[in-house]
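quick one before i forget lol
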Amino acid sequence: MSKIHHLNDTEEKLRYDAHQNNPDDKRYQAFLSQVLEPVIHHLNKQGFKPPKINAKGLDFGCGPGPTLSLMFEKQGHQVDLFDKFYVNNPAVFEQNYDFITATEVVEHLSAPNVELLRLFNSLKKGGVLAIMTQMMDDKTDFATWYYKNDPTHICFFSKNTMRHLAKQWHVKVLFFGNNVALFMS
């Protein structure tokens, strides 16, 4: 979306402040499990399972009520947080991670190529970058697509976009449904 249509930071944060993402909400946890489960499966294959449960992750775009990080911590993993409005800690990008999650955040990025490359470059060898966003496909009628109506959604993806990123990064991408992509470093 053209920058002239982007909200300013104050307007954007007001919109996020209105979200009801409660860590105790079982429906929200089930929604986030779409990312949690494939990442946990990948980590298990990498050897991060009992007795070695100590993978280190980053929840990028965690929002005001981090939930996915708590779900990973219940599985025995350590998770750092980053959110440009709520946990703005750029020091996290000086570290490397076994996994990075970006759930319902990439559609908000004004410089997606820069941010996604920064995330990918923050992965350890054998790590996984999990992106959750509604992806367009051949059946998507953009004019009537609900997802584009949120004024904070300024960038849109498809499975072809994700395949292009995987090719650019020389990695494998796996899809789970029409909204989760896992990039294996």
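fyi The chain is about 30% helix and 20% strand.
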